[in-house]
Amino acid sequence: MKPLHKIALVGTTFVLAAATGHVMQTSAPDGLAPDPAPPVAAVQLAMTAPTEPTVTPPPSLPPLVMRAPAAEAASGPLPQEPAQPGPGFAQADCPAPQLSGEAVSGGAVRLTVTAPCHASRQVEIRHEALRLPIRLSETGVWSGVVPAFAEQAVFRLSLNDTEAPLVLTLSVPDATAFNRLAVVVGADTGLDLRGPEDDGEPGWIARFSAPGAATAVQIYSARAAMTGSRLVLDVPVTPQSCGKDMVGAIHRMSGKISDQEVFRLAMPDCGDGEGAVMMPLPGFPLAVAAN
Fold first, then answer.
1. Which stretch, 1-15, 74-88, 96-110, 196-210, has highest mean pLDDT?
2. Is 94 exposed, middle or buried (0-12, 13-18, 19+ CB in 10 A)?
3. How many Cα atoms within 13 Å fall on the side-chain side of residue 112?
């Protein structure tokens, strides 16, 4: 039975193939010869066998050629400017500014300013109501003796408007053992504070000024027991000062009491000739201490 089954399958296949060819011949248009029908085995293989896609390689590109930049006129390298720090920022290669000090004899303090990034600059040291103008050296250093107006003396150094001031507090126990009188005047007025050295009373004057500063400060110091000290301002008559009013401020300290006042001095007319005006200043101790 198995051979007969195979023969029947083959016969059926040929009958289907003949019928398919007949249909294709009768369906073809007139004048066109129908394509011969492919064998059934070929059709079955075409339907079942996968076909590989044809890949066309891309055309080869020419090799890239690196070209050197065109030579420019020999003008030398562009100038390079050093980077400048923004406001309020310290330069990376400069140490931070410092304000240091120590108490010395005479109820005073020796202050030292070290600010290499602010060399040759005019700055201020603030103490109580005073603003003492100073100028730093070419290396950014200044050192000087400042009379103290309080036993707990606070000093502030302002280097510019963007950095916080440096603050130093020192104990000066003998500061109240001295009388102080400070005169604040315009830097270009030529006013000079004079003490009673001619009367044999020892005292000393500390002066603070700097080129370009708006004011100058002069401080007279003497021991509090010397109650008869009298001070005067010597004001020269010059083309810059004649016919004007000289205005300034006076700060006094006697013991633990201090006061301040403003003074105004009328200068002679410019046609009155040259010379100087002597202005007596308020006396110390008892009048101040009684308040």
1. 96-110
2. middle
3. 8
